[in-house]
Amino acid sequence: MTATAIESEIVAKSPVVTEARPIKDVPVVDGVVMIRQNMPTVPITRPLPDDRAAREALYYQRGWWRTETFLDDLRRQARTRPHKLAVAARRLREARTDTLDYIELRRLTDRFAGALVELGVRPGDFVAVQLPNRWEMVPLLYACIRVGAVICPIGPTTPEDALRHRLSLTEARVLVTISEWEGTSLAKSAVTLREELDSLEHVAVIDGHAPEGALGFRDHFIDQTWEDVHNDDLDGLELRPDDPFVVLFTSGTTGESKGVLHSQNTIHSAIRGYVDTFLLDEHLVAAVTTPLVHYSGFGQGVLASVMLGGTIAFQDRRKNEALLDLVQKYGATLLYGPPPTLTDIAQSQRTEPRDVSTLRHVVTGSAQVLQPLVDDLRATLGARTYSLWGMSENGPVTITKLDYNQDWAAHSNGRPIDAMEIRIDKCINPTERAAVGRLRVRGASQALGYFRREAEYQEKLLDDSWFDTGDVARDDGRGGIRILCRAGDAIKRDGQVVPLAEIESIINRHPKVAEATLVGPTGRVEDPILAVVVPSGDIHPTLDEIRAHLREADQDERFLPERLEVIDVMPKTLTGKVRKATLRQMFGER
Taking every annotated instance into account, which residue ranges of this chain make up the domain AMP-dependent synthetase/ligase (predicted)? Predict the structure, then answer.
């Protein structure tokens, strides 16, 4: 079919509106709201109304929730800018970049949707996708919406036990994975699980040889014109905006990971706030360093870009020094990544300067931003740095704003987006507000709940739907916050919470340190402060050197570590968070 014929087909088709459908075994969760007719008019207020129905009506009125879907966004872009570059997916080892324009992305979405129908996927089923940053992830995301399935993104480094847990909990019917990753045969592990799990009917393998019992992804998903075979079968299947859409698994730092369930609307309100904060539009070219299977990758990356009609560029493997090649080649306007990645990028630009004149925003999260990083990025990339805070349960909640001074990202995690509220409670009494305390959030971006873990989710909610984030934060003096630490890790000195996150970030900049974290050996607030360090070379840092480094950064003497332990590898969760409970077991009181 020619491009002209494809365009004509897209123009002729309009989005299909269907009735909301129940999803199998999803509990009735606070926050799941079907689109209602004749919603009452609610005055726009700040703070938001305490009445849940009034809040939800306001979400629609303000456009945080909508009656359209992300699939409608894709159709609109394929119709209005069919040949604009939508995806640039770099394959580092193969030394090539796979690209999709909007018309190709739309066509592949329909083809992949037909392929899922051919495999027996029905509305309410779960489809698991275990991939690195590959182009296939993008049309698979939209194809799941097309067939009414819930997508379950999974990282390629997920161990078999954790993969079994996620597939078993969701009863995923299909698993799309890659042949091997970092020396591990993911395809063989997947086939083994298929034989073990009654619910897992199909394993599709990208790249390499598909083992017996698995499908070749190219053979089934790409080489067959399923959009023609199942065109009529796809009508009426699509997810609606308030249907369960994606399940994201938490890091599991305190136990078995939980599946955070989101609708398209709870995701939309978060990325709407994100793009509005930075005044982003169709000129967006986002270079994303985070995994597409994580919220920041598929939400702020893929969905935000397609919603605006922009371009997203990414690479499949971690090679931070190569990321600026993407910025230069595609004229990236926004660069997103965690502070350690951005530190590597700044150093790469000093060593091998690239043309990065198109960059306007450098956005970072997941760790504290320090002044030296802000200075480095301004000097090397000529762009402002913005800090955000969020979590799987709600996406980006706070962001340093355009009207802040250029250094504020080093002092704050920002103010809340319009769709969300924040408050800081006294840790011992959630009915009282405090300048430093437990951070709670509420708003349109809050998840529907934990899949099949409703009681655990309800434990985190106060009566008026305020969600306990588990973080300790302080007021930044401008209506925003600065994250200090996880509540379960808090240590106090003279009644003040030690800013563990900030001190960790400073220690991580020591030349003899590759990675560092702070813990209390027993988990009590009066614990001594223990620094656990992975050295960057053969010469290990001393406690005196670490303390002197912190004094040079003007840290309070009371907050300096009192003990140092050096280890070879930091214990971490699947999402890269340090397992502090493991460190407490290793280095408890002696």
Answer: 74-451
Pairing of strands 563-566, 530-535: parallel
Residue 365: the pLDDT is 87
Contact 172, 127 (CB under 8 A): yes
Q: Read off the pLDDT of residues 153-187 as tens digits, 9 standing for 90 and up.
A: 999 999 999 999 999 999 999 999 999 998 899 99
E strands, 368-510, are 384-391, 395-399, 415-416, 420-426, 429-433, 436-443, 449-450, 467-475, 481-486, 492-493, 496-497
Asked whether the beta carbons of 156 and 167 are under 8 A apart, the reply is no
pLDDT digits (tens, 9 = 90+) for 34-68: 333 444 444 444 677 878 888 899 999 999 999 99
Classified as helix, coil or strand, 166 is: helix
| SS3 assignment, position 207 | coil
Which of 245, 273, 308 lies closest to 73, judged by CA?
Answer: 308
Task: Give the 3-state secondary structure of residue 180.
Answer: coil
Q: What average pLDDT does the chain have?
A: 88
Q: Which of 150, 110, 111 is nearest to 129 (CA)?
A: 150
Alpha-carbon distance of 156 to 182, in angstroms, equals 9
Tokens of 34: 């079907």
pTM for the structure as a whole: 0.86
Judged on CB neighbours under 10 Å (0-12, 13-18, 19+), 531 is buried
> What are the tens digits of pLDDT across the range 458-488?
999 987 789 999 999 999 988 899 999 888 8
Report the SS3 class of residue 484. strand
Q: What confidence tens digit (pLDDT) does each residue in 389-428 have?
A: 999 999 999 999 888 788 899 889 999 999 999 999 987 7
Q: Are 117 and 233 in contact (CB under 8 A)?
A: yes
Biggest alpha carbon distance in the chain? 74
Q: Please report, for residues 400, 455, 542, the alpha-carbon distance to residue 534 in angstroms, rounded to integers and kept in the order given.
A: 31, 38, 12
Backbone angles phi, psi at 99, to 5 degrees: -125, 150
Residue 355, pLDDT > 80, answer yes
For the domain made up of 491-586, give the CATH fold: GMP Synthetase; Chain A, domain 3 (3.30.300)
- Provide the CATH number for the domain formed by 1-422 in this structure: 3.40.50.12780
Distance from C-alpha of 466 to C-alpha of 110, rounded to nearest angstrom: 39
10 Å Cβ neighbour count for 375? 15
Which residues on adjacent β-strands are paired with residue 439?
Answer: 424
